From TrEMBL:
GO cellular component, one term: plasma membrane
PROSITE patterns documented for this protein: MFS (PS50850)
Listed transmembrane segments: 23-47, 59-79, 91-114, 120-141, 153-176, 182-201, 213-232, 238-260, 281-306, 312-333, 345-363, 369-396, 417-436, 451-470
Record flagged with keyword NADP: no
Chief localization: membrane
Domain Major facilitator superfamily (MFS) profile stretches: 25-478
Protein name: Major facilitator superfamily (MFS) profile domain-containing protein
Amino acid sequence: MTTPTTTPVASAAASTTRSTRRWLALGFLALAQFLVVLDASIVNIALPVLGAQLGMDTVALAWVITAYVLPFGGLLLLGGRLADRYGHRKLFLIGTIGFVAASMLAGLAASSGMLLGARAVQGASAALLAPAALALVTQLFPAAADRTKALGIWGAVAGIGSAAGVLLGGVLTAAIGWQAVFYVNVPIGILVVAVIPTLITRDPASTPSRLDYPGAATITGSLVAAVGAFSAAEQVGFANPLTIGLLALAIILGISFVLIERRTANPLVPLTVFRNRNLTVGNLAMLLLGAAMVALFFALSVYMQAVLHYDALTAGLTQLPLAAALVVVAGLAPSVVAKVGLKGTLIGSLVVLAAGLVWLAAAPSDASFAIHILGPSIVVGIGLGGAFVTATQLAVDGIEGGEAGLAGGLINTSQQIGGALGLAILASVATARTSALETAGIPTPDALTSGFSWVFLGAAAFALIGAAIASRAHTARQSH
């Protein structure tokens, strides 16, 4: 059963107390989230130039991504709980300041060690920023209709960040240098830090309870090990001892975490929160959506450059129709939810996403963008836009203010873990398929195309499984 929510009068009062200009506040919160999403992809295009200047080989370059993802994915639950304990605005500002400072250090990096250290601080800061920002959004918009509209904007901005990373990475690296992909965060972050305190009031005074240190240590260690295992699987395979060892460590620490949470008086993650079926379904749907989305963008970018021989800038530009469809649909999601319902919209969006991915899987090795890629890209964008907004909405359904940060940490963790898992599995599938075909004498372009087709089909399977899980959500929301 969902947790009872506040009455309309109380909700409106709470929202007004935090901000009298909540839609403007939403814009700046979403801008900070845009930086977090952007930073996960903008660095990719700059890696070859960066590696040449700093003397980093392929393995070291992989750590430029991993150094960000590990602390980000591993610390999200802790970051969300810290925000609940010590204040959502406070932790949001601390996270944003840390992110800006680390971005500046990354741009100034004169060695690989300095760069990797800065990337780790970026990831840890993002783990504070992201759940606190989403928690503030849920507090500013407690009513169902307004929250759906706000999350539509949130989803649109996140979609722009995902697609803009490839495009901006190519433009900034070519025009200014690899340092620009980090410096771009600085002025935007400073603006957010300067404006948010004028739009959102200070956090209410409270006496924070004792932090669950054993729980925090075990869940952080488990998530870091899990993300590390998936990252290792991409490079050395699932059968490698490193991957197996990290997975075993993640499972052991995860079991330890559950045992600790069942016995402690002040758990980091109260297991009773999962009695909220919509929260559980929303997180599982986001896990699978993240798996499909990350694998999609990876395969599509590499397919365009390695098979169709697009340059980095062209590859980025060709993803703009997908991003545009995503943004438009995310903005229209509130109207669709009002007519179809949250559950129906999520299921329909995931099915549309799967259809677009299956269509994309049919693209040949000599594909024409207009004939083979444009149509499925738009369909995929439609599915992503609707699914991202509604999965997020489900995951914060019925959550009170005292657990808003936890809900934000959970949904972001689901997306990150899902992305790492999906990419590791489907990249391994694509590599095995391509290698088998090349061994059989199939030309490399055709072999690569077949491998990427399997990635798109695998991503479609994730989306359909997500749709099946979404069918378990409650049909009607409680009134707000």
